[in-house]
Amino acid sequence: MAFIRIPKPWHLPENRITSESAYFNRRRFLKTLTGASIGLSATALTGCQTAQGSDDNPLVGLVNLSATANPDFVEGDRPITGRELASTYNNFYEFGGTKNIWRAAQNLPTDPWTVEVSGLIKNPKTYDLDDLTRTFDLEERVHRFRCVEAWSMVVPWIGFPMRKLLEAAEPTAEAKFVRFTSYYDESITTGPGGFRTQSLPWPYIEGLRIDEMANDLAFFAVGMYGQTLPKQNGAPIRMVVPWKYGFKGGKSIVKIEFIAEQPATYWNTLIPNEYKFESNVEPDVPHPRWSQAQEKLLGPGPDFSVELVPTLPYNGYGDHVAQLYI
Ligand code: MTE
Question: Rounded CA gap, 174 and 260, in Å?
Answer without folding.
Answer: 6
